[in-house]
Amino acid sequence: MKHFAPSKAIGAGPLRGPRETRKDDKDGMTEQGFKRFRRRRAPAAATPFTADTEGGSRLAVPASAAPSLLPATLPEPWDRIRQVPFDGAGHQEARLPLVSRFRTAPAAKSFDLLRTRLLHTLKARGWKRVAVTAPAAGCGTTFSAVNLALSLARVPGSRTVLMDMNFRRPGVACALGLQAPANMTGVLSGTVLMEEHLLRPLPSLAVGLNNAADQNAAEILHSGTCIETLDGLMLRSGADVALFDLPPVLEHDDTAAFLPQVDGVLIISDGTSTTAAQLAACEKMLAGHTQLLGVVLNRARKSDSSLL
């Protein structure tokens, strides 16, 4: 004899197929049915996941115990630049005299004054990139660039980048008593990342060093890859000021090739050898390409001002 459910029971619950009905009636509720029931009853945010135990049973584990899938937070590019030991007050391997050793000396005071004037000019015009060059070799370009960078690095909350772009006679590494990890060509060609090449002798100062001369310097500085690399450097480092130590203006075309990449130029003149004609020739070459920020008189006599 066949038994039929009363007609009023029809539609009282969701329709199920014959096979599912028979299995549920025999075993109470299948595993699939329990899962569907749990999904319908529990909020989506609080739904636990299940894990197999050694006996094969299903063990409910709270969702909070699941391992986090969020990626780990990486430090910003500036913090990933490798820090190196440096003692500006007593570094014995430095070739050039660093004003950090003689804070009360007139030279140190002159660089601090130059720093303040430069920062005022850059801030007023929204500039960041400064080339440091000279009319001829031997005027003290590297000496001035390094000591100006050290002075800028003492400004609280600032970031300064010093790049050795003198492919003819690189000297920043020797001046600071540091070992250059590689030549600058790899960085400007994009094959070496900024974080892999730059060093931080001070928390607020990063330096890009060069360990080899390259006679194709002008072609390197002309390239589009060099332009993109420098733009990326400024963006990733978040530098407030970037100083570029460049070869003499009147001896090579390297500096002329690089002028479109800077906002202004500081010219270092030698009080014992630089002539007015040389300075006039430098100003003529800079005209129409970038701004002349000032002329720094190195090896000046006591009656002369160090800043013109």
From TrEMBL:
<keyword id="KW-0418">Kinase</keyword>
<dbReference type="InterPro" id="IPR005702">
    <property type="entry name" value="Wzc-like_C"/>
</dbReference>
<keyword id="KW-0547">Nucleotide-binding</keyword>
<dbReference type="GO" id="GO:0016301">
    <property type="term" value="F:kinase activity"/>
</dbReference>
<feature type="compositionally biased region" description="Basic and acidic residues">
    <location>
        <begin position="17"/>
        <end position="29"/>
    </location>
</feature>
<feature type="region of interest" description="Disordered">
    <location>
        <begin position="1"/>
        <end position="58"/>
    </location>
</feature>
<dbReference type="InterPro" id="IPR050445">
    <property type="entry name" value="Bact_polysacc_biosynth/exp"/>
</dbReference>
<dbReference type="InterPro" id="IPR027417">
    <property type="entry name" value="P-loop_NTPase"/>
</dbReference>
<protein>
    <submittedName>
        <fullName>CpsD/CapB family tyrosine-protein kinase</fullName>
    </submittedName>
</protein>
<keyword id="KW-0808">Transferase</keyword>
<keyword id="KW-0067">ATP-binding</keyword>
